Amino acid sequence: MSYNNRDFLRAGFLTLLLLSGVAAHAQFRQQPGHSIGTVTTQGNLIVLTLDEDALGDTNLFNLAHRTLRFTPHGSQYTVETIPWQWDSEFGAEMPGSDATIKNFAVPFSGKSWNSFSVGITGSITFGEPIHPVAGRAGTPPPNRNDGLSVDRFAELQQAGPGFINTIPAISVFFKPRLNGTRYLKESSERALITWSLTEPFGGIQDMSWTPTVNRFQAVLHKDGAIELSYDEIHAEDAVVGLYPIVTAGNEKEIAVIDADANAAAPPHLDITKIKTAAGDGLFLKVTIETRGPVLPENDPALAGITYRICLDRDKPVACTPDNSTVWTIIGSAGRWRSGPVSPHYIAFGSGLQPTVNVSGNTISVEGTLPADYKAGDSIFLSASTQTPGTHPTIVDQVLPHPIKLAGLASPAVHLSALKKSDGPFSVAYEVFHYMRPPRAEDLTCSVIRALGDKFDMLAYYSDFRIDNPEAGTSSTGPLGGGPAGGAVTGIHADQENLAAFCTQGRFQWQFIQPVFVGANQMQQYPPDDFQDKNTRNLGFYMHQLAERTGNGKIPPYDYAMSQIGHEMGHRWSAFVSAKVGDETIELGPTHWATGLQAQVAFPYQRPTEASAMGGGVWQDNYDGTFTQLDDDYYVPATGWSYLDLYLMGFISPAEVPDFFILRKLVPVGHDSNGHAIYKADRTTITIKDVIAAEGPRLPAVDQAQKNFNTGMVMVVEHGKIPSPKLIESVIGIRERWIDYWSTTTGHRSTMTADPK
Predict the structure, then answer these.
(1) Distance CA 494, CA 482 (A)
(2) Tens of pLDDT along 142-165?
(3) pTM of the predicted structure, to 2 decimals
């Protein structure tokens, strides 16, 4: 997994998600990082103690053995907690997500429904999505076939408001990656849906080696009432609430802010007026009026221009996501995927709806307010505009002005505290979540400013969980050039934005966020009896890996080596193409294509390994079929291919043997050892083909950096010290990382992990 600032790309292993917008956390990507805590050292480890409230608060699930009742009030609902209701007769297990009831129609969101979708991750959706294409970064459209959905990196705090007006939905206990069974029982007056689910377990991105128990129900009554009940719940983060579609279009003006003209700003970026209005009692609509016409969509010149709106309870010193609600409109030139995308505006920010309206001299967006904002509250609103480019400049600002939220309240509530006398609500939800993920730049600047620019890489580990559906982390960095500070070329990954990471040129790559000490990948070993039929989990390889050691156990911290090896490998891989004849062939992007022959040069623990960056080990059967001897997943931990090592600067072009890529893969069976066999078209590739597409790797092998230093950072909450378990785990991971690096580079490079 990686996140690359160059093209705002976030990708999971084997899955490249090109978002239609810019990743939400990238909205301040050009803003230099700042310190978010105090940095000290403890032996060979670094301790980052966070400032108070640096990552906000947690809001963990508190509805176990409770029942919420939503009572219709016209098109709205009142909400109350009633004595716990639980029906132990679940009815028939559902074979899929489609549900049909025969005795009555469910009234919801202005319609009556005989059929709906019951999502395996804890939600019910009705009809088709209102927005069929993802319009906000990190929140793809709901999945009609399986309830609500988000992308694999989405924060629940962003997903909660992001579901509004996407599809009629009931979020009973929505949590990504849940799995299990669903049941449906119908009577003449009600439909009962029950979930019995586990969080993901056994894998590298999981928090548990064994299944967990999460049981909850929804009762849909004939009269429109809805009850949500919770039995045993292990998970502590989820989205709970009702999401009818709200599109009445009633609008009431709140305030108009006049701004002085700024002749130095381009006319389309010179703010003259900001108008605010309440839409349907739910949305805050903000319209920015400029001195000249706003560039229309389809105009290539809009790429990179930015309009930013800041909302805050108190008068902010600066508008940042750390202390304010920030809504951003940015011009996008479009991307090539299945075809060209016309230049357009993208809106993102907590609670912001995806639609951007441009008309003459105005550009407007609307969104919902954060939790606890009530009708009549006062907030401060400010705005700014920014030019595009590598070094964007704020060209106009409107300082904070107080406005009163007449007739407008937040749909984000505390469900357990609501009484029937509260509301009614058009939409009502609560997000139960862990702390907000830190900005990668802030983590790194905290360390470098305190200890100096002496690290090539930084890995972060913590005693606390963050708002992330996976236990692991993706990666990012400015692609610095090590101690020499020069750029590496010929690898299709350009050095950029060093200042944002507080480096003079040395620092190169890092974890985006800390890995939680309770995650599977931070355990020295799986349970002794851990077994798994999934070839992507360690349990499948326990016997084979244990044969390498003399103590009957697998090598320690195997999942941790998979994670750190893969993520730090993204500093160089896998972005290159090859020019074969007149055709340019992408070998990735981001991870080597499944069909790329990427056999490891210096295996870490098995005789035959595919690269930690993807690809496979393929046996040509010389009959048009190919046997997959190792797949493109990075579990168990593996080393790097010859191509990787060339891109890393550890071997010369002459040492890279010819390889190939298989395309149009069609499965045809398995061999006697269970290896998959495919039909495919084979194209031979040489390192000269890669150089023809990308240019030579510079510095070349004789001048390339060979000695690296990784900072191993323990991140702890304000007022706390690292737990013994965290210290033990990070020491163990540090020791294995140094050995892993030496082994998988064929001892052509060394790794230290020294903070001094």
Answers:
(1) 14
(2) 454 589 998 877 899 999 999 999
(3) 0.91
